[in-house]
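agent: user wants the structure for Epoxyqueuosine reductase from Nitrosomonas ureae. delegating to structure tool.
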Amino acid sequence: MQKNTSTNKIPDYAALAVAIKTWGKELGFHDVRIADANADITVIESGFFSWLGKGYHGEMDYMAKHGTKRTRPAELEPGTLRIISVCINYAPPSVKNSWDVIHSGERAFISRYALGRDYHKVLRSRLQKLADKMTVEAGAFNYRVFSDSAPVMEVAWAQKAGLGWRGKHTLLLSRQAGSMFFLGEMYVDLPLPVDEETENYCGSCSRCIDVCPTQAIVAPYEVDARRCISYLTIELKDSIPESLRPLIGNRIYGCDDCQLVCPWNKFAQITNENDFHVRNGLDDVSLIELFSWDQETFEAKLAGSAIRRIGHIQWLRNIAVGLGNAPYSVEIVQALQARLNDASVLVREHVQWALLQQNMKRTEQ
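agent: tool returned. relaying tokens verbatim.
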């Protein structure tokens, strides 16, 4: 944990909690809540290790290697008493309708959270500013800020803090903002008053389960990541299983289907953050255009984007699958043939598969 070194003070913790929420909103967070780091999450912890035991995490070894540090904050950061949980909306303005893009096979669908700049730095920077403000007002305390950057059960703690509830798709849901927001946390050693957990409002709805293209939501509140398109296009570094490729459609980076059908996302709020606005027209762009990007163009266009993390080879792999799933066209075949001798074995494999799909479609015409 980081420690502030200002003159030690004895704060009024109830007043400080109110102030933290005010400062957080002034910094651009849309909600700020506080959870007890010692809250009983036995059921959550048991469910998490059961999920790991089933192998549902796939190749995400980092999910398993930290043991109970992920579920017990004080084991990760000794002395942690509270978790300040924050959220910030990311739905961009003036974005192309997602379903229109998904149903247009020659266009590329990119999860809407990734259309702008990488959120990790934005959230951590804001959380650090919040910590600095607390440092001035509260005196010496220990803290550490996170945004999907360490073994933290961010949805579980956001739920405990009252930011929302875990939906059947496992994302956090809010009655005020749906699910289209980012989460961040600050572990602190301050005995702040905590907020109440909210109710679960999913009821009997199963739209997210029913719509999943790969049926990755194997049960309410349980996702087999190995089938999830977000995992397949982002986390998986090797070949995408052939049986799943046709189900991916034109989703080349992530998948929003479970969010798009969720009734609560009618309350999703448009972001005020310029960093999360659409860049490079990525909300409505052709697969062929993106497939033509060389390494230099990829790096330049996606500088500061979360997408850049997957690298150019994985990017081409994903797009090749999208092109294979697209309606037959001479232009698509030509684009694929241009990369038949790509230096990457991974790219060549997926290009060959895509060409086979295009040829099958041509013969069926």
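agent: one observation worth passing along. The mean pLDDT is 95.
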